[in-house]
Design brief:
about 240 residues; alpha+beta; Beta-Lactamase; 2 domains; five-stranded antiparallel beta sheet; about 10% strand; DNA binding; Lambda_DNA-bd_dom_sf; Cro/C1-type_HTH; MLTR_LBD; Transcriptional regulator
Length: about 240
Amino acid sequence: MNRGRPLPQKEVADRMCVSERWYRNLETGLRVPLSAEVLERLSQALLLGPDERMALYGYALGGAGGQPDEGEGPSDFQDELAELASAQTDFPSYLTDRVWNVLDHNAAMAHWFPWVREPAANLMRWALTTATAREQIVDWPRHAGQYLALLRFALVTRPDDENLAALRDTVLDDPVCRGLWDRSPKVLAYRHGHRYELRLPHVSPETITVTSQVLLPAYRQELRYVLLLPTEGSPHGP
């Protein structure tokens, strides 16, 4: 089937075995019953991928469904995660919150990316709006599209988060990001296992290829612990 064309309401309704009126109400934001079975039929009718399904379920359930509320779990859990992020390892690692504010980082991360030392350092804002990121991230437009897809997923699953909305507005003030945003409705839950290349002449004269490993704490899934692993054969790789 062709996902590149808009699907008429009647076609989606027929695929779901519901009335066209019911589906029209859903599209216009009216409250309609959304059971797990209906969500599954909607996912199949719209040919949604796994990240899009997560976004749909998160939106329908009023959040990234099934995650513990912020603050649940041990009270010192974030401190423990910060210690993990700042641990002395050969590879860059960092800890962010749900709006990509950098909460902590290790020495390798600060060496590779000195901007993390700045007050209110924010990964998304740096990656999408700075000239440095566009120079250091090889094939920046493609990766920028993925960062925007991450932001879109967060906005869909947490539509009332004012900090996310403010971050979106800052990013979309950039005309290049606005163009990329308008061209693609893609959503992406995580960049776990994502491989990309970096130009960091202060670290290596050669391009460094890394893979990002993203860990979500069980009790604080609004936090992200990320480790950047240089691939085998790349400078600083194993």
